[in-house]
Amino acid sequence: MKDPRIFDMDHADLSWCPGCGDFQILEALKKALAELDIAPDQVVVAAGIGQAAKLPHYMKCHCFNGLHGRALSCATAMKMANPDMLVLAVGGDGDMYGEGGNHFLHTIRRNPNVKNFVHNNGVYGLTKGQASPTSFVGMKTPTSPEGVFSEPINPVALAICLGASFVARAFSGDVEQTKEIMKQAILHKGYALVDIFQPCVSFNKINTFKWYKEHTYYLDGSHDPGDREAALRKAFEAEKMPLGLLYRRERPVFEDHLAPYREHRLPLYRRRRDMKDLETFIRKQYA
Amino acid sequence: MNVPRRGTSDISLVLCGAAGQGVQTVEHLMVRLAKAAGYHVFASSEYMSRVRGGSNSTEIRLGSVPVRGLVDRIDVLVALNGGIRPNIRDRIDEETLVLGDPEELGDEFASLGERFVPVPFLRAAREGGNRVYTNVAAAACLAAVFGMPFAALETYFAERFGAKSPDVVKGNLAVAEKGFALGGDLLRRGVLRVSLGHASPQGERIVLDGSEAVALGALAGGCDFCTGYPMSPATGVLTFLVKNADRFGVAVEQVEDEIAAMNMAVGASYMGALPLCTTSGGGFALMSEGLSLAGIMETPVVVHLAQRPGPATGMATRTEQADLELALYSGHGEFPRVLFAPGTLEEAFSLTRRAFELAARYQTPAIVLTDQYFTNTSYDIPLPDLPDASPDRCLVEAGPEYRRYEESPDGVSPRSVPGFGTGLVGADSHEHDEEAHVYEDFDLRTRMNARRLRKFEGLRREALPPTRIGPEDADILVICWGSTRPIVEEAVASLGRTDTAVLHFAQVWPIAPEAEALLARAKYVFVVEGNATGQLATLLRCETGRRADASVRTWKGLQFSVEEVRRGLADVLDKTVGR
Ligand SMILES: Cc1ncc(C[n+]2csc(CCOP(=O)(O)OP(=O)(O)O)c2C)c(N)n1
Ligand code: SF4
Ligand SMILES: [Mg+2]
User: Fold this and answer.
1) Residue A47, strand partner residues
2) Residues of the domain holding A113
3) Regarding beta strands B500-505 and B467-469, do their DSSP bridges make them parallel or antiparallel, or are they unpaired?
4) Which neighbouring-strand residues pair with A236?
5) Does the model's pTM come out above 0.80?
């Protein structure tokens, strides 16, 4: 157990709007890491682009801020290069489910030991309020003045269908519970999705703090996260949406099966190529 | 008929058949047997974008001195099926001998008269017990004709299929025996008389193709990570690394798209891996945002860009040199990069290795440009030199005060990776401060961008000058880049002019400073390239101020032949220099 303040930045210039749910997600994350006794130099936070994706700049960690939509690709590769480094992939709903949608699908299939925390605010915050893949039908935005026509993605249902090894939902308004869910995700072996409902006070007037409070509830002991069908039924509940661990299953971890890690887990940067062996190989194969 | 024919010193054999008939197997076998028999050997295949049917071919040249260029001349054509395509048919001349089975070909070659020699390959395969092995019958027939011992075939099949499938070895050999007898018969009847001296021994030689040379060069450069999405003609490098991942400890993955491939390479590089992406033009286009990311994050990445004709899907299994500008200008914003375009297999090995070295030292992308022709061409080369030491990743340990993007005179900031030391290592796609945090400040931006671009000066100083083949004081320079080198060399040699030299650019960016003086000295500059718009000529004009006097170009989808370049050069010489 560490003091969460070890993750505080002395001079970060936070550009989130006052009252934004992103602050609570950051707070929950620092606490989760501290409670798991993880130090800033033991975690890489990989992000894409968006308001949510600014998060790694606002905490002490190995901060990797890549391209819009690509955090999961970069994060997967980091595990391929160093399987024992904790790697989180953080970003918004647009980042992860829109621009990065294809990587979302295939990362779930691969199951790297990456923790995917998605700030789902149902809108594009950074670019000032356009519709996102999770915006509700009918939501009026500058790019959908008549209201959004397409149906929203249900990220947790999608992840369960694809066989994700850990699928949970959280609400930023509850820092304690969000922190607990994050801890479970970090301790899980394999890919873990935590879709976090996050009010955007500036641009999403539908899914407000109050709305989320009224439309969510926590799963209790009666739900078996090992039961995929039950999990899927829960994931589709719409009137009141369940929070907590929806689904979990044991699956082999992607990076563990890669050629370099069959015998030991030394990160690639610590390894050396045996040039004599390469020469022997060339001589034999191409003589 | 005598081979080599008068006026030539090597034999050009072409084998064609439908996809699925095993033309590739014959090529693989013939090349190994020819090398074992002490010949220098060259093989290049061309194929249609289909899995069955059609007509594919391979050209094999055998010589007592090294042979490395594609020629139009066909001394012996072996047709495994009918429906020979014009790119082969039009090359049959009055000295070409065609071998084939009338049962398969009907009277397709009737007009050739005696120069069509019926050889019952099908029957041989049937009698050997497996009619799908006509390719083996043909290969064994050729082996006999060119004086290779039957024992070499036994060794080949045993090594190829080995202990795992003794039945396959037996089946192949049964057919090979019949085919070998057919070849002996051709010799006895005097249909073919072969007089090819054996090569003088030149030390240990290996035989491999362009994909293998790139992949082995990557391993020699330290490559330990590879992501790709299948796309001809770049897939060979990916499958090579998959196949050999265990032995060399390479993390390889076929990913969902080329966007992922490049972003994964950047993520892996950030963690200290030495990544390779292998792709063709269409995939490379998808990688361009990620390439730009590598530029600003200063993560070493190497891309193998195997060109094929565009735009768009273009001609999937054909060749072109039209992605020089794509490689040079891809990715938004400005950042330094290196582009190699190997002309020989030796260069494919050494320059891919160098691409890794420069990428790591300068923390920037390096691209190796090949093409379909190059990846599917093989010949014998000396065993490449390998250093004893494992490649240097150029990393420093991060202390508590470590900042990733420190100012430095040559622009290269000491690079660490997460976990190496206790310091935090950042990376940012935004313009950033020394610690890699996004921070909008115009002075900072000016400084950071200038520092990154300063690395270009070092890269330019280290750029490989073009290779001159021919007299130092040549008045006429025939310039080429990438895969065409051996072809242009052979074409220029065949012109027999003492005033002409070839100048080959194996590094096409940065252009070495020496190029300017070399071009300025020449009275005439001709550029030979496999594209329609003259991309290297344009680049050389920008970089050296020298405009080409004429050019020889092709964009039909097939590689230049020696004869074609010779004709093209003769023509431009006529129009400019006069004779
Ligand atoms: C290739 C590319 N396209 C578009 C953008 C512009 N862009 C940046 S963030 C963003 C959407 C942000 O939405 P989300 O991911 O939901 O994050 P939020 O700001 O809501 O937290 C867009 C469209 C970009 N940076 N890169
Ligand atoms: S725009 Fe919305 S999501 Fe972004 S900081 Fe403001 S409230 Fe938060
Ligand atoms: Mg959003």
Assistant:
1) A65, A90
2) 4-286
3) antiparallel
4) none
5) yes
CATH number for A277: 3.40.50.970
Whether omega before B4 lies within 30 degrees of 0, making that bond cis, reads yes
ipTM over 0.95: yes
CA distance A66 to A53: 9
Determine whether the shortest distance from the Cβ of A20 to ligand 2 is under 6 A: yes
Task: Please answer whether residues B430 and B292 qualify as being in contact, where contact means their C-beta atoms are separated by less than 8 angstroms.
Answer: no
Query: Does the beta carbon of B232 lie under 8 angstroms from any beta carbon of chain A?
Result: no
Q: Confirm whether B209-380 and B467-576 share one CATH topology.
A: yes
CB of B22 closer than 8 Å to CB of B145: no
**Distance (Å) from CA A120 to ligand 3 centroid:** 6
A81: Cβ below 6 Å to ligand 2?
no
Is residue A75 within 8 Å of A87, Cβ to Cβ? yes
A266 interface with B at CB cutoff 8 Å: no
B443/B445 Cα distance (integer angstroms): 5
Q: How far is the CA of A91 from the centre of ligand 1 (A)?
A: 9
Which of 356-395 (B) contact A at CB < 8 A?
383-384, 386-391, 393, 395
Q: How much is the average pLDDT of B229-237? A: 97
Q: What is the CATH number of domain B209-380?
A: 3.40.50.970
State how far the Cα of A71 lies from the Cα of A76, in Å rounded to an integer: 9
Tokens 């405009």, residue located: B547
Give A90-127 pLDDT, tens digit per residue: 999 999 999 999 999 999 999 999 999 999 999 999 99
- Residue in chain A closest to B217 (alpha carbons) equals A278
Instruction: Give the tokens for residue B368.
Output: 């190796």
Burial of B117 (0-12, 13-18, 19+ CB in 10 A): middle
Residue B579: what pLDDT?
56
Q: Using alpha carbons, list the distances in angstroms from residue B161 to A30, B139, B164, B168, B532.
A: 58, 17, 6, 7, 44
Q: How far is A272 from chain B (nearest CA, A)?
A: 6
* Contact in structure between B215 and B238 (CB atoms under 8 Å): no
Give the closest-approach CA distance of A202 to chain B in angstroms. 22
Q: A284 at the B interface (CB within 8 A)?
A: no
Mean pLDDT of chain A: 97
Q: Where are the domains of chain B?
A: 2-194, 209-380, 395-462, 467-576
Determine, for residues A260 and B424 on separate chains, whether the beta-carbon distance falls below 8 Å. no
Which residue of chain B comes nearest to A89, CA vs CA?
Answer: B267
Does domain B2-194 fall under CATH 3.40.920.10? My reply is: yes
> Between chains, do B271 and A277 touch, taking CB under 8 Å as contact?
no
Does any ligand 2 atom lie closer than 6 A to the CB of residue A24?
no
* Shortest alpha-carbon distance between residue A172 and chain B (Å): 25
CATH topology for B467-576 is Rossmann fold (3.40.50)
Q: Are B283 and B272 in contact (CB under 8 A)?
A: no
**Ligand 1 center to residue A51 CA distance, Å?**
8
Of A13, A77, A272, Cβ closest to residue B264: A77
Tally of domains within chain A: 1
* B-chain residues near A82 (CB < 8 A): 271-272, 418-419
> What is the percent of chain B where pLDDT is above 90?
91
Structure tokens at B80: 């495994």
Residues 6+ apart with CB under 8 A from A48: A66, A67, A68, A69, A70, A71, A91, A92, A95, A96, A99, A100
